[in-house]
Amino acid sequence: MPRRIEVELTSSRDDGTWTWRAAGAREPKGTLDGALLYSGAKVGDVVRAEADFDIDGITVVGVTPPRPERTESGRLEIIGSGREEQLVTSTLAPKERSERRPRRGGERGDRGDRGDRGDRGDRRDRPARPQGERAGGERPRRRPEGATEGGARPPRRERPPRPERPAPPAKPKPKRLRAGRTHRDEVLASLADTERPIAEQALRGGIPGVRQAIEKQNEQAVADGRPTVAAEPLVAIAERLLPRLRAADWRDRADAALADLDELDLRDLRSVVVAADQGARDDDTRALAATLREGLSRRVEAEHTAWLAELEATLADGRTVRALRLSSRPPKAGVPLPPELAGRLAEAASAALSADVTQDRWATVLDAIAYSPIRSFVRPAAIPTEPSEELLTAVRKVASRVPAIAKVFGIEASAPPRRTRRSGRGGRSGAAAAAPAADAGAPAVEPAAEV
Questions:
Q1: Distance between terminal CA atoms of the chain?
Q2: Cα–Cα distance for residue pair 286/280, rounded to 1 Å
């Protein structure tokens, strides 16, 4: 199928052919039959051509003459009528006047025959009107409580300011792992020029990434008419180089983790320690892995102690929802809550589920209980007499995690779906493995009676 390109005519030969090159570039270039050109063709013209691309080269099969230059059309002058007219006009509507209101400087209107009113005398001799009494015998106005004789209102009584709960101190944000490229660049520099692109692709996507890159390259080669390459030799090279590359990549991450061992995020530190089984291959890297494991154990113990202290302080401050959510994120998995602390947390959660709180608050507390390790030991103090549809929806959402509370609302908890996804070598997924660890923190106390 011909492709459309733009070419520039460079010269005319005696045999009737013309030479051309790509417009604005040196390559590609070639010759074309002069019979394809239009009359008046000259050197330097940039035309649009249709060409076939094959193994022998590029063959021009058609040429479209350039478009003639557009000339500016004549302008029309608008003369108009020659009259000057006001562009914007305004008309003010006459103002209506009330019949009862007298016109200024005019008559007051017909007021009827009021008779002779006589001499009204001096009005200063009239008796004073009692305070607060209106004309016409209306009810006297009530004086506000505490108002003065002049009718001034008493000063507003200011309410005492509400005591503000001190905000918890902000936690310092942990550092994230930023690995260098020292060891990785050393390995890449030691490889041959033909192996380096394969190694870089293996670092980005592993063996599947190498296969995908080869397939994409072969598809492009078929489209351009070039020969394809065999995938298996390149994959074999990637499999041979991948262990060295992973070891160098782990070494760069381990050096960065060791530099920020006391401030690094625990998730990043754990990932480096877990990958040490494949990355540590000599005595130096094994010693580095041992140092990182010791640092991780020390950090986890310190984080767990601080977590328990924060949980105690939050519970003592009366922030039940915050304490419940905090209990669901222990830094040391598999370690149960102290029985005394777990019992206090379960009692506070049960008391928070009362009829005195709003239904929105009820749903918020229930959601926090559903993911706490003491969820099996919480019994609501009371439930709303007429639960809303939003509250019932919230109960159905977590019914499988808190079946005892769902039963109080008459909702049967369905069995949670089985997790079939595996992570790692035969291990359970993160959510499924964390469930027993969360239940391990449940207090060894008898549950309260259901309400």
A1: 80
A2: 5
Which residues make Cβ contacts (< 8 Å) with residue 284, sequence separation at least 6? none
Average pLDDT value for residue range 331-359: 88
Summarize the chain as % helix, strand, coil (round to 5).
40, 10, 50
- CA atoms of 264 and 177, how far apart (whole Å): 7
222 CB contacts (<8 Å, ≥6 apart)? 228
What does DSSP assign to residue 175? Answer: B
* 212-259 tens-digit pLDDT: 999 999 899 898 888 888 889 899 999 999 888 888 898 898 899 888
**Distance separating alpha carbons of residues 42 and 346, to the nearest angstrom:** 93
How many CB atoms are located within 10 Å of the residue 201 CB? 19
Q: Which residues contact 251 (CB under 8 A, 6 or more apart)?
A: 183, 279, 285, 288
C-alpha atoms less than 13 angstroms from C-alpha of 232 in its C-beta half-sphere: 0
User: Could you check whether the bond before residue 28 is cis, i.e. omega within 30 degrees of 0?
Assistant: yes
Single-letter amino acid, residue 167:
A
Tokens 């397939």 -> residue: 215
Alpha-helical segments (H) within 317-381? 320-327, 339-352, 359-370
Query: What is the C-alpha separation between 64 and 107, in angstroms, rounded?
Result: 93
SS (H, E, C) 225-276: CCCCCCHHHHHHHHHHHHHHHHHHHHHHHHHHHHHCCCCECHHHHHHHHHCH
Q: What is the CA radius of gyration of the chain?
A: 45
- pTM, entire model: 0.47
Give the span between the Cα atoms of 103 and 94, in whole angstroms: 15
Closest CA to 382 of 414, 413, 353: 353
